[in-house]
Amino acid sequence: METENAYPECEKMRAVSEVSNQIGWFLDWLAANGIMLARRSNEFECWCFGVLDEDGDECERCDGTGTVTSGSRTHLVGYHEGFEHLLARYFEIDLDKVEAERRAMLDAMRADRLAEEVRATPTTRSTL
Predict the structure, then answer these.
(1) What does the alpha-carbon distance between residue 51 and residue 65 come to, in Å, rounded to a whole number?
(2) How many other β-carbons are positioned within 10 Å of the β-carbon of residue 5?
(3) How many Å from the N-terminal Cα to the C-terminal Cα in the chain?
(4) Bridge partner residues of 26 (DSSP)
(5) In this structure, is the dihedral angle defined by the CA atoms of residues 25, 30, 36 and 37, taken in order, positive or negative?
(6) Shortest CA distance to 77 belongs to which of 42, 40, 46, 29?
(7) DSSP assignment of the chain, as one string?
(8) Beta carbons within 8 Å of 94's beta carbon, 6+ residues apart
(9) Which residues pair with 39 in a beta bridge?
C-alpha cells in the first residue's frame, strides 16, 4: 500500500529544484549586470507624500494615502520581491508550509535519535 508523503510541499520544492536553481542563477546574473525586474503600475506618488496640510486635513487628491491611482496612465516600477519568493510563487510553493514541514522533519529526526539512544542504553537493575 502506498502512503502519502508526509512533507508534500518539500517534495514539490525538491521536484522543481533543478529548474528553479537555473532560473535563480539567471536572475542573479541579471541583477549582477544591473538589470532589474519591473512591473507596470497605475499608482503615482502624490505631491503631498501623504503628509497632512497645515490645517491637519488630508490631501483631497490622494485622501492622505500619498498615492494617486490613474485609470489610464501607467509607468514601470522596480519589482522588489526576493527571488526565492518570486520562484516559489511561480512554482506554486507555499514557503510557510515548507518551513513548517522542515521543522516537523527535524522534530521527527530528533525523536527518532532519542528513541534510538534510549534503546541503545543498557539498563541496570538494582538489587536489594
Answers:
(1) 8
(2) 11
(3) 51
(4) none
(5) negative
(6) 40
(7) -PPPPS-HHHHHHHHTHHHHHHHHHHHHHHHHTT---EEEE-EEE-TTTT---TTSPPPTTTTTSSEEE-SS--EEEE--S-HHHHHHHHTT--HHHHHHHHHHHHHHHHHHHHHHHHHHSPP-----
(8) 9, 88
(9) 77
Grid coordinates belonging to 70: 490613474
Answer for the pair 62, 50: CB distance below 8 angstroms, yes or no. Answer: yes
Residue 44, beta-bridge partner list: 68
Identify residue 1 by its one-letter amino acid code.
Answer: M
Report how far residue 35's alpha carbon sits from residue 69's, in angstroms, rounded to the nearest whole number. Answer: 27
Neighbour tally for 64: CB within 10 Å: 16
pLDDT in tens, the chain (128 residues): 344 688 999 999 999 999 999 999 999 999 999 999 998 888 877 767 666 656 666 777 777 777 777 777 788 888 888 999 999 999 999 999 999 999 999 999 999 898 888 888 776 666 65
